[in-house]
Design brief:
It is built from 14 helices and 17 strands. It has 380 residues and is an alpha+beta fold.
């Protein structure tokens, strides 16, 4: 059974209300011949005065009599990715106690007011499902077979006015920190990162705080960054960065073809940095065949109109084979590098542009990421 829908309801967010809403939602997506029951606040003894408590046990029973028990941990607050490991350990402990008492546990899930995409990724890594009041739901069981995926909100619009923590990586200052983290030497503290990225100390601290909560970076007790999960870093950045929205874009045509424009770039005297498909090719080993042909040349230019004039490009609304962009910040040029005589945006910038770009660029992004993962620490 597979169910996908969009749901925008906003029921209550206390733990009892979350459990009730979960029960009602699961019942609504299963056939009427199925039964759904909930046991709340279940406590098991593990001996030696050790007790394990689970907020709810959700039992699903199929028409043929087979049933599955799902452990449900509720949080009446927003759960960030950094919380997931501890929640998983808590559920693991209860599962062991339950199995020792002869119970068969078929699934595990988190119920919360909102579960972000990055938190969902962490839960998936721990083989856990999720439910939130915006309509996001994943419930997967083997016996009886249940596969439920419901799509709700991608962003949380239930803000606490007293919560002043950074929620977004939108803007050039955050981008500078992201790009620096993608290549900087570790360990690095808040102040040193600010200096390297060219931002204020407050910006560095807030961005690192967000990335810490999102389980993108590891920090020691002094707040020093000791590890960066670079793939997760870019995944989190592109939740707030879109190449076509963040930059001033001009679509253009080179009548002589995209390769002509690429060849002529070595002759221009305006600062530029290639990105997109052409940059993907520059970062791929010679032994790797690009997943798609080069049909659109994307590049940043300090003076887009002047560069178009030097290349003989014509601005068009349709049929473009060149995309010239005035960058959101000079950091695009500052982080660029030269490959075979041409200037390319940094790999992290290229990947973000491909992940949010048109056509098959997301497939090209995955190809570049695979190469980076095999060559540089942190991209795994």
């Amino acid at each position: 059974m597979f169910h996908v829908s969009r749901n925008g309801r906003r029921p209550g967010t206390t733990e009892p209300q979350l459990i009730q809403s979960l029960e009602e939602t699961v019942r609504s997506v299963l056939p009427s011949t199925w039964s759904v029951t909930v046991e709340r606040s279940v406590v098991l003894s593990a001996g030696a005065a050790r007790m394990h408590e689970m907020d709810a046990l959700l039992t699903l029973r199929a028409p043929d009599g087979t049933s599955s028990v799902v452990l449900v941990e509720c949080k009446n607050r927003i759960v960030v990715p950094r919380d997931v490991a501890a929640i998983a350990r808590q559920i693991d402990a209860f599962t062991r106690a339950a199995v020792n008492k002869g119970m068969r546990i078929a699934g595990r899930m988190l119920a919360a007011p909102f579960v972000s995409p990055t938190t969902r990724a962490q839960l998936d890594g721990h083989q856990m499902g999720w439910f939130d009041v915006t309509g996001n739901l994943r419930l997967r069981l083997d016996d009886p077979v249940v596969v439920v995926d419901r799509v709700g909100a991608e962003r949380n619009d239930m803000r606490d006015p007293s919560d002043r923590l950074l929620k977004s990586l939108r803007g050039s200052a955050a981008a500078k920190v992201v790009l620096e983290l993608s290549e900087t030497a570790l360990p690095v503290g808040v102040r040193e990162l600010a200096v390297r990225a060219g931002v204020g100390g407050g910006t560095s601290a807030r961005v690192l705080g967000l990335l810490d909560r999102e389980a993108v970076v590891d920090r020691d007790e002094d707040g020093v960054v000791t590890a960066v999960r670079k793939r997760a870093l870019i995944d989190r950045w592109v939740q707030d960065y879109q190449v076509l929205n963040a930059n001033e874009v001009i679509t253009a045509l080179d009548p002589r073809g995209v390769n002509h424009a690429l060849d002529e770039l070595s002759l221009v005297d305006i600062r530029f940095a290639l990105t997109g498909s052409a940059a993907a090719r520059a970062y791929l080993p010679d032994s790797v065949t690009p997943v798609s042909p080069l049909v659109l040349l994307s590049l940043y230019a300090e003076d887009p109109v002047g560069l178009m004039r030097q290349l003989g490009l014509k601005a068009v609304d349709r049929g473009a084979n060149v995309m010239v962009m005035r960058p959101y910040d000079d950091v695009v040029h500052a982080k660029s590098r030269v490959v075979d005589g041409l200037v390319y945006a940094a790999p992290a910038q290229v990947v973000a542009d491909l992940m949010t770009g048109p056509g098959r660029s997301s497939e090209e992004a995955e190809q570049v990421l695979a190469v980076l993962a095999s060559a540089e620490p942190g991209w795994e």
